């Protein structure tokens, strides 16, 4: 019989060989006929299935709330400085994206895993916080530089309210909020931040859809799908900042000497 040549490359999300491009088997014309939107496209290409409308709407909300947070944050700052050094769009964008990580915008997957494990093990929030402190670990998804109990983050309010209204259970969000109750007793800035809130609600959303096995949910998160969402969202803002700097004809940035403490090597 025929012996098939073994392939060197495996792919399972899209196919452009036929008459029509497909996303997870759905022809591109159907994507538009059914008005799946960017949330539907993400659910096809990332999760390989069509999620219900309340879930695709939620994905779109995440993209919208993470799109930008002003020029002062680490990533926008890098993108701006790079654009002002005369670099092109892609280099400036890449420079901004490279700041996304455990302190800025890239805490989502780790936060989701921490909160899921807390819910799974039944450890109460106070013990969770105490244990993390003893282990000298930061709780991912907790803490903000400028947002606090007195200056709440409207993005978090929007996401929380949607989850409460549309998901069959918000067990992970509720657990994260219990953690916030404990951490904010220490310091009012130790709130559930936008990364942590999206992370907790996303797990609740995936579980509400019943479209995934529990092991699949964990695997997708371990593979970085939630930080991927922040990255896609914030790319919108970074591109905006880069275009803005070019439009405003901003020249090379040099940080002012008077804003740098020059310390002796021996003192540092
Ligand atoms: N868990 C436990 N304790 C914390 C946390 C946390 N996540 N964050 C700060 N603390 C504690 C610190 O240990 C420190 O305690 P100490 O005074 O006893 O030493 C105190 O709070 C102040 O810490 P700072 O590092 O000065 O806090 P800062 O405001 O600079 O940090 C940051 C803000 C970077 C967001 C921090 O809270 C953090 O790393 N959080 C976890 C990562 C995270 O969720 N990042 C996403 C932020 S939202 C976004 O980027 C879109
Ligand atoms: C952001 O969305 O960039 C922020 O929450 C981080 C910040 O410091 O504002």
From TrEMBL:
Family matches, as Pfam families: Citrate_synt
Gene3D superfamilies: Citrate Synthase, domain 1, Cytochrome P450-Terp, domain 2
GO molecular function, one term: ATP citrate synthase activity
Coiled-coil regions listed in the entry: none
One GO cellular component, as annotated: cytosol
GO terms of biological process kind: acetyl-CoA biosynthetic process; fatty acid biosynthetic process
Domain of life: Eukaryota
The protein's name: ATP citrate synthase
